[in-house]
Amino acid sequence: MERPASATALGVAVLRAVAGDDPVALRLVDPDVVARAKANDTVGAQRLRAHIVSRSRFAEERLAAAVARGVRQYVILGAGFDTFAYRQPEWAAALKVIEVDHPASGRAKRERLDVAGIAVPSNVRYAAIDFATTSLADGLAGSGFSAAEPAFFSWLGVMMYLDEAAIDAVLGFVAACAAGSELVFDFAPADAAAPRYAEERATAMGEPFLGRFTPAALEGKLRAHGFREVAIVAPRLGRALR
Prior knowledge:
The chain is of the alpha/beta class. It has helices spanning 7-19, 23-28, 31-39, 43-68, 103-115, 136-140, 164-175, 197-204, 215-225; strands spanning 73-77, 96-101, 124-128, 152-155, 182-186, 229-234, 237-241. The chain has a seven-stranded mixed β-sheet, with helices on both faces. The longest helix is centred in the N-terminal third of the chain and has 26 residues, at 43-68.
């Protein structure tokens, strides 16, 4: 039986809508839901919202730099309700944008796009993948992705929901891509003092965290996979260059 669309993915869209920095997210989320979220705002929600806005901004800044150096493939791993493709700037026109997500989550997003009257740009492709059971190589087949050409990967709000084997499979795939490929990701820190609001919220939605990492352990894992440049730029955000 196929698992349902991700509840946490929709929760992220609500937080982006509440933040007011994403006009597309506002169109994808029920206004009543946004109003309730604003009325019941908490310190934990504010911190999580700041992280979500910051990680997207960081990823898109790194993407812009990658495009400037010639990268023409953008793969959004666990795309959820990411809206970059539907508000893309002019510099992204030459990009092939591939949204990768669980089949049910992908369908839920496309249904909301359709209801909102948001057109899918011609440079966007979709790939249905369950990271727990399907390899990226198999899932990306038919999407137009080329492992022989450098690509930029964003992997936001996903790693913490996967077991180590699934994480290693994704890292191994990205590390084997053409030189110049880059991965931006976020992760759940192993520090006992780290905030647990996001984990508690996800667990309540039926999507518990499966793994946490110290920055040192994560950097070691990335280098073991062959990434030549690794940077943990914040306690919960990092990037790696192939």
